[in-house]
Amino acid sequence: MKGRSPATVAIAAATVLASIAIFVFGSVDYWAVYAGFIPARFGGTLAYLDDGLLLPAALTPFTATLIHGNLLHLAFNLVMLIFAGVATERALGAAGVVTLYLVGAVASVAAHWLLMPSSAVPMIGASGAVSALIGAYSLLYGQNRARPIGPFSARTVQVAWLIAGWTVINALLGFMTAGTGMPIAGAAHVGGFIAGVALARPLLRWHWQERA
Q1: What gap in Å lies between CA 174 and CA 74, rounded to an integer?
Q2: What is the pTM of this model?
Q3: Is 1 within the bounds of a domain?
Q4: CB 81 within 8 A of CB 137
Q5: 3-state SS record for 183-202
Q6: 33: part of which helix (H) or strand (E)?
Q7: Residue 141 belongs to a domain
Q8: Which three-class secondary structure string do you get for 3-35?
Q9: What does each of the 212 residues of the chain score in pLDDT, given as a tens digit?
Q10: Range of the structural domain that residue 45 is part of
């Protein structure tokens, strides 16, 4: 896997090292506040915290992906990252996977912010960025059984079904985990997934044009 998937391996290694270091040497609660994504820091009631008390807010969409609540949280995201990342990197190359992951991280926190812009609760974990890889994987490798509907092509209908299915799954997960010790940020997953679906074809064309 290492030789064919350097970007996926590098992202996974960085995520594991950062998360384990926090588990062993630090406090998850401290790092969640210091480097997690807090919606209210972006033009909200906590915008004043950009004065050096916490990590600059602009970095937190990316640093939040390196922080996990516990080993189960880390393990689940790692499995999905490797599963979707290796296959997606085979199609899009290392640069494509890195682009997907970074854009997915931004898209996921943007979706979360749109849903609850005044929230002071930190969002942590790589699942939003990983969802971008899952979205790209679903479009690149999923069998298209959709049919055209009116003016909409079969591919457009396929994309709509993928997004709708992922949205329903995460809405249910969010509902089931609401009020628990680890609620799932369903909107973040949907935001990352949409970014992955939207970028999959352009990145595929870019990657193979570069190789030609």
Answers
A1: 18
A2: 0.88
A3: no
A4: no
A5: CCCHHHHHHHHHHHHHHHHH
A6: helix 28-35
A7: yes
A8: CCCHHHHHHHHHHHHHHHHHHHHCCHHHHHHHH
A9: 545 789 999 999 999 999 999 999 889 999 999 999 999 988 766 766 665 678 999 999 999 999 999 999 999 999 999 999 999 999 999 999 999 999 999 999 999 999 989 899 999 999 999 999 999 999 998 776 767 787 767 677 777 777 787 778 767 766 666 666 666 788 899 999 999 999 999 999 998 886 65
A10: 6-211
Residue 191 near residue 111 (C-beta atoms within 8 A): yes
CATH number of 166's domain: 1.20.1540.10
Domain membership of residue 159 (yes or no) is yes
Q: Is 93 left (phi over 0), alpha (psi -120 to 50) or beta?
A: left
Alpha-carbon distance of 77 to 71, in angstroms, equals 10
Query: Could you give the number of structural domains in the chain?
Result: 1
Any domain includes 114 = yes
- As to burial, measured by CB atoms within 10 angstroms (0-12 exposed, 13-18 middle, 19+ buried), residue 104 is buried
Tokens at 198, concatenated: 């939207």
- What does the block give as tokens for 154? 């079969």
Is residue 121 within 8 A of residue 194, CB to CB? The reply is no
